Amino acid sequence: MYIVLSTGSVCRTTDNAVIPEDASNGDYAEYLAWLAQGNSPAPVAGEGKTDRLAAINERLAEIDLSSLRLLRSIVAGTAQQEDRHLLAGLDSEATDLRSELEGVMPAASERY
């Protein structure tokens, strides 16, 4: 299944790959063949869903960066006990966000 985005790109819902509108792109050609078989793309998610999905993805990226910094300090032996607690908190927050992400757009959380 696919969703046509406002940019003209297509989102493949099985893996949430964003496929540019480009005839030379193999994934886009596959989408066109899918359309030719009589299939129709799903409606675009509402603005609220799109905004929330973007916010979740942005926060997950921030968590990844913070976690990486904390893990480096742990490996280097320079971490404090509070760093370990902070890392555990970030991990818990990321788990909650991934659960919410699955509710906003199924299959999206598989990327994280």
Describe the structure in your own words.
- With 112 residues, the chain is mostly helical.
- It folds into 2 domains: 2-36, no CATH class; 47-111.
- The chain is 58% helix and 8% strand.
- A 3-stranded antiparallel β-sheet has the order 1-2-3, with helices on one face.
- The two termini are 21 Å apart.
- This is Permeases of the major facilitator superfamily.
What secondary-structure arrangement, pairings included, does this model have?
Blueprint: E1 2-4, E2 10-12, E3 17-19, H1 26-36, H2 47-76, H3 81-104
Antiparallel strand pairs: 1-2, 2-3
Helix pairs in contact: 2-3
Query: pLDDT below 50 for ≥5 consecutive residues: which ranges?
Result: none
Specify the helix fraction band. 55-70%
Give the strand order, joined by hyphens, for the main sheet.
1-2-3
CA distance, first residue to last residue: 21 Å
Shape: elongated
Number of strands: 3
